[in-house]
Amino acid sequence: MSAQTLLLTLRGPQQAWGSRSRFATRGTERAPTRSGVLGLVAAALGMDRTEPLDRFDDIRFGVRIDRPGRVETDFQTARTLDGKTSMPLSYRAYLADAVFVAGLESTDAALIAELREALSAPRYPLYLGRRAFPPAGPVPADVIDASLLDALHSHPWQGAAKGGRRADRQVVPAALDALVDAASDEQADLSLEDVPVSFDPRRRRYAWRDVRFLSIPTPGVEPEADAAEPGAARWSGVGASAPRRGFAPPAHDPMLLVSDKEV
Description:
By secondary structure, the protein is an alpha+beta fold. 14% of the residues lie in helices and 32% in strands. It is built from 4 helices and 11 strands. It has helices spanning 34-45, 109-120, 148-154, 164-168; strands at residues 4-15, 25-26, 60-67, 70-76, 90-106, 141-144, 175-181, 190-198, 205-217, 221-223, 233-235. Strands 1, 2, 3, 4, 5, 6, 7, 8 and 9 form a 9-stranded mixed beta sheet that branches. A hairpin with a 6-residue loop joins strand 8 (190-198) and strand 9 (205-217). It is globular and about 60 Å long.
């Protein structure tokens, strides 16, 4: 049976995707986590937090970073309602102005169709990793008749700013970073405790997953054969304006994902 992939475009002013946060320091990964995206899907389906999650076991997850955004950190204080007791001080990091394309691959066509239908009319409010961070609008969900990797390689870039003069200055990168579940016979670049076993608030549990880093040529962008500088690219479609001449994409640094500098 051939695989299908459900692609979700995750866009919002703020997003936070934590996999290791504890106590008063709440960090964020540089890209959506498997547990965060499946939590969003479970909310769309109207699942209770105590329901089993084994229906998602065979899904392969991956995410493409179409616009990385920037890490911001809030220092938060709080008091009880009567104002007599101070709550623990906390630092909370989040991603501002980021856009991602998350993919869920499965050979179960009925499950993919059910997820897409749920996202078009979610039962519970959706949020991007943290309850305070709703998406910018309805979450686009497209079913692609292809594997996860093929879908991430072919789906149009979603990182363009929406409207206004800012869109005219948008830089189109020549390549996009991506993180995908590593197959059993593939060399992993990182392991994360990010497979949800239970969302039960009395005892949330997560298992480990192996992750691969990829660099995907931006769909619709072809490198110039006579480019004067490395990384220069010619924009050839999908509705965005041309990139600046001589644009060089930032170097891929997988260590960003294992650094805690942002928190």
